Amino acid sequence: MRGSRILAAALLSGLLVAIPSQTALAQQAPAPGVIVAPAAIMDLRESADFTGKVVAIQKVGIRARVSGFLEAVNFKEGDKVPAGALLYQVEDGAYRAAVQEIEGQIKAAEAARQLAVLERDRAQQLISSNTISQARVDTANAELAKAEAEIVRLNGSKQGADLNLSYTKIIAPFEGITGLTSVDVGALVGPDSDALVTLTRLDPIYVEFPVATAIFLEYRQRALRGEVGRDANVELLLPDGTTYPKKGTINFVSSNVAQGTDTVTVRAEFENPDYLLLDGTLVRVTLEATDKQEVLAVPQQAIQRDQQGAFVMVVGAGEKVELRRVDVQRTARGQAVIAKGLKEGERVITDGVGKVRPGIVVDAALATGG
């Protein structure tokens, strides 16, 4: 019996020796894997986003200036037409006849003027020999003046008739895109008619956006102190999520504040050769400083927050994790600008922070592209 107890004790002792302690198991566990990125100096210019609206530089409804029946429509709807292009032709027979009639009246008036000149010259010769009275001379001069005035009047009428004749050709006042025509050949049009077609100029084009008065005044004050430049790059995010390939320039800032919204209207101009920007489109406007701003930054996802503020998990010497308090100045393009708390090159955890705590050793891998 005693021998059996001794044997059992020996076996139990061997089993306990074979089972590793919990401490040993913890020491043998693999270090948790995390993704890190170095704090780096980069050009992160200050920027601000606004909602804007695309506005055509020129957009007019083309109207008839004289009455008549349309003889031709010389464009296709949606076409780009140059300035001076013939859009519509109004029947012009009556207007040509009016011009010819006045031209005939002018020739008759010129003949009457020549006769009045002869009568005046004859009267002046006769008055020198006391053959006629001074009243006859005065009458001859008056008739000549009347004939000359008639020519002036008729020339004025001819200019009006020529102008009306020119209005029978309805032309594009500027280069633009035609809309849908509201009339067709044979329609009777006139000054009282609605717009025949809308012509819109799309290149270049404007984008207008409201800026809160507080933001506008703060920017002005900083510009006066030399903290930021007076100019800014203007970028657009289109409704499909793509970035417009061309940058714009600000060319107008309103001199008054919209009372209902307490905003200042700002306008930028963009090249639009491919007509990607259409009149009335809502876009996202980003203003970015033109001058370089070299700052220390880390990926925005590395920033953690608690009741004491912002912090990051830093992988330091020996791959040990350290909690580091930081001051985040601002964020831009997915990066957090660090004013205090980090040095260039220090590695911060961007992925896997939930698996670590200060003081443990980790298996750190550099973020792709980092």
From TrEMBL:
The organism named in the record is Sinorhizobium chiapasense
The parts of the chain that form a coiled coil are 99-157
Q: Which residues form the Multidrug resistance protein MdtA-like alpha-helical hairpin domain?
A: 100-168
Major place of residence: other
Q: Does the keyword Signal apply?
A: yes
- In the UniProt record, the signal sequence range is 1-26
Q: Which Gene3D superfamilies match?
A: 2.40.30.170, 2.40.420.20, 2.40.50.100, Helix hairpin bin
| Location in the cell | Cell envelope
Q: Which family does it belong to?
A: Belongs to the membrane fusion protein (MFP) (TC 8.A.1) family.
Where in this chain does the record put each Multidrug resistance protein MdtA-like C-terminal permuted SH3 domain?
A: 295-354
Q: Report domain Multidrug resistance protein MdtA-like beta-barrel positions.
A: 204-290
What the entry lists under InterPro entries is as follows: MdtA-like_b-barrel, MdtA-like_BSH, MdtA-like_C, MdtA-like_HH, RND_pump_MFP
What domain of life does the UniProt record list for this protein's source?
A: Bacteria
The record, for Pfam families, names:
Beta-barrel_RND, BSH_RND, HH_MFP_RND, RND-MFP_C
Instruction: State what protein this is by name.
Output: Efflux RND transporter periplasmic adaptor subunit
